[in-house]
Amino acid sequence: MPKGGRRATSWKKGESGNIAGRPKRPEAIEAKKIVADVKAAAREHTQDALDTLKAVMSDAKAPPAARVSAATAMLDRGWGRAKETVDANVGVTLEALLLARMSRRKDQPVAFDPGPV
Q: Do the beta carbons of residue 55 and residue 71 sit within 8 Å?
């Protein structure tokens, strides 16, 4: 067998030996069909669900928690959920990380002491 270069059995650049990809298992195909059917059935009842939420939200006799929950559900469906923000304070500045990275030699292990921040 020759070393390096292209062998007679090698694939040419941009060519694949398995164009269709890995064959799908019948169980996975069936599971996807079931999920799609459930979603379609649930979407058929969308208007009924919205009417129920609206009725609970507007009912003065309903408990406040139920009214707030219904109002939140209506707003989430109409406007989408609010983006969640994360405030991550790790105690190290980007500048300190970059300086530590540039100052170490390639053969040194990575040991970082951010010092006072």
A: no
Greatest Cα pair distance in the chain:
85
Measure the CA angle with vertex 78, ends 75 and 84; round to 5°: 60
Query: How does DSSP classify residue 5?
Result: S
Q: Name the CA dihedral angle for 22, 27, 28, 30, rounded to a multiple of 10 degrees.
A: 130
Higher pLDDT: 59 or 2? It is 59
The C-alpha atoms of residue 74 and residue 80 are separated, in whole angstroms, by 9
Q: Is residue 109 over pLDDT 70? A: no
Q: Where are the alpha helices (DSSP H) in the chain?
A: 26-44, 46-58, 64-79, 94-103
